[in-house]
Amino acid sequence: MATATQLQQVQQHLLTRYPENHPNTVLVRKFLETACSEHIHLDLGDRDLVTKLCSGDEARYWQQLSEILLGHELRVAGLPLKPSHEGPDFLIEHGGQRIWIEVICPQAAGIPEEWLTHPFNRAFSYPHEAILLRWTAAIKEKAEKLLGNPGKGIKGYLDKGVVGPHDVYVIAVNGRLLRGPHFASISGISQYPCAVEAVFAVGPMQVTIDQTTLKALGSEHQHRPIIKKPSGAGVPAYTFLDPAFRPISAVWAVDIDETWVIGNMKPMAVIHNPDAANPLPTKLLPCHHEYLATPSGAGEYALETHDGLLATKVSE
Fold first, then answer.
1. Per-domain residue ranges for the chain?
2. What is the pTM of this model?
3. What are the residues facing 289 on neighbouring strands?
4. Is 1 a residue whose pLDDT tops 60?
């Protein structure tokens, strides 16, 4: 448990990070103080959470803040969280089943600076492939935390016995750092969430043109199973179509930061693995949309979009 000194350290760091007395700044700072305090008092963070949060290192700060913010969302949704210091970030026991959630906030490596800073009076393109590569890398990293990497002699949560063979395992990705000052968004070039593109090989829309009449014959999303790195190396973008990843139940895709408390967006979506060994129940995690793929033929799936828990609450 945190001491009063540690809580004061967090308060001082937040005051340094958000020093102004504008009402919005004060609201953000007070919200974060409360969220951090609750997270710490419930013993939900790592033992060195305060150190990481106050280190001045942006990567460590955003990783810790992402865990705190998502922990807050889960508590607001009424989900009972249990401390998990040796395994994934969160443990939920629901309906007699254990549900683990592992959080990651990918850094903006390889994303053009102009996209992150949005210089005034200058045109630039949407670096959708660079952003998608960060999503695929984040999902791969957290998949290996569960499955391990036998080639490197690394054991995962399953081999260590931390996560059981019948447990649900969810990868939560906060894409906040991949957009700079733009409006919050988790959508890729396909208009589906980047996480959908990363696990179902969904690419941009394409139009088929008749070579003789030059008339459009129809349009559909491209099948894009591989994303190319700048080096030319191919990166798989079909995680949920690969049986090796059956232990991954779902991806919880979010774009959340502290500014939602003053009215900014915090889009969230859950993408379910249709071949999951242990499926995640629908309408459990807070999100606006849930994406489910159902078999539609030999080796084919139809992707369906359903209202999530947050959409249901809004409509009520």
1. 1-83, 87-285+293-315
2. 0.94
3. 269, 307
4. no
